[in-house]
Amino acid sequence: MSAYTIKPLVTATAISTGGRNGHSETTDHSVSVNLSVPKAMGGPGLPNTTTPEHLFAAGYAACFGGALEFVASQHKKSVAGTKVTCNTSVGPREGGGFGIAVKMQVHVPTLSTEEARALVQETHEKICPYSHATRGNIDFVLEVEGA
Asked: CA of 6: how far to CAs of 3, 9, 16, 79, 95, in Å?
């Protein structure tokens, strides 16, 4: 068993048609979105549509917040009211093709910045699956603010 093998607890399945100018939907219908390439990327930028980057940002922010709550509970600390903002950018990479970059901003109103930073670092380094999946593959900036 490699270090990257998991025992699946939940599997989410989505089907996409039409790529960045198409439609994506989960098989359980909990997520259903129309996509459109933004005008800034040379696309039509259709109203009421989203992008893969929006979906990634929402997923990573939610996952990171849940992972932080888990870490805080292990340390018997409260992170109630925490706000996680995940800024996800897409653009050309030096090696060719395209890549993403993430700036994660975490505001923990219940702890000092020092206490919050320790929990957030542990979350990023040891717990969050998105952090594990992207580590070393994307530009990543982490900003932490406490009370």
From this structure: 8, 9, 25, 27, 30
Of 75, 60, 62, 64, the residue nearest 110 (C-alpha): 75
* Full-model pTM: 0.93
Determine contact, residues 119/109, Cβ cutoff 8 Å: no
Rounded to the nearest angstrom, the gap between the alpha carbon of residue 46 and the centroid of all alpha carbons in its chain is 24
- Cα dist from 71 to 11, 27, 54, 119, whole Å: 23, 31, 26, 7
Which pLDDT belongs to residue 10?
95
- State the amino acid at position 50 in one-letter form: T
- Return the SS3 of 46: coil
User: Which residue, 20, 11, 6, is CA-closest to 90?
Assistant: 20
